[in-house]
Here is the input.
Amino acid sequence: MADIYDMLEQIKINHEREKHIERKDKYQEDLSCLKCYGMKKKYEQEWFKIFWKIFQKAISEAESYNRNTVIKLMEYITLTRKEGEEKYPSSRKVRIKNYEKIKEKSEGLLDTTIVSIRYRNKPDYMKIGIKSIIKVICEHYMFDEEDNLLIDNKVEENLLGNRELITYNYIIEDDELDIRFLRFEEWLEESELTTIKDKKYNIMRYFKEILHLEENIIKDENRDK
Here is the structure.
């Protein structure tokens, strides 16, 4: 968020001037505008109040939300929810295929959710980190038999105590990790270097650490340019 905060602030200023002061026919769109997307009673649902309370504990700079936030977050949860083996197959390749089908849409929903929120100051987290926070919270939501949203009471503990998030300020999802590891395996096989036969938990854990280290190196190199 720190990487796009200034841009969002400028959008907010432009939108307020062009639409609400000068009342132009064509104006800068601002998905966080409370005048354009004010909350209605039907959006004030308990599941979202819980989300917002936890989200603000992680991102204290989060100041306000509107109906875009609620609608897009619900769409994201509905799109990504997993129920039983049919929704979350044991086959890694099947999981990857299912994940890739919805990845673009789910990321777009998160993008809209993030920019629909107004922040009183620039958050410490980058956009990818705020996405990670939302994903961790949403993983704990489930639908009951009547399609009401319920949330696991361990969500706050799992979010605020997430070692990966604390250390790197973002997380690599299991599905994303599977995709990147599969590509790594394919490269090894194509290069005829070796074949990984036994994929133990430690291998995936070390591989994730390597990916994070690689990202840190790239950031440091870009910072030095």
